[in-house]
Predict the 3D structure of the following.
Amino acid sequence: MENVAVVGASPKKDRYSYQAMKALEKKGHNPIPVATARLEVLGRKAYPSLAEIPEHIDTITVYISAAHQTSMLDEAVRIKPRRIIFNPGTENHTAYTQLRQAGIEVVESCTLIMLSSNEF
């Protein structure tokens, strides 16, 4: 089981971040919502930032635009997850070199497709 931080988690059922939370849970992972405007998502405590999550994070899956990623990326470098998945629409090519230099795998893909095709 992986601890997966879902950055931009939403309680709205039509959002991909919500669907990813459900799919991660169904596949036996521990989705941890990261959302500044939420106290919880799917009955799980939401954290306003990666730095406040008490568990070690294995994977970060990103659902916020590049324009809103600066502090999240700085925190990611500090907590050193194994990988960060940039879902469609969240790509941030200027950050990839810094992340790779920190030893973090960078993946441009859709978490939902990765989970459904057993590539997660």
Observations:
- The CA atoms of residues 88 and 110 lie 6 Å apart.
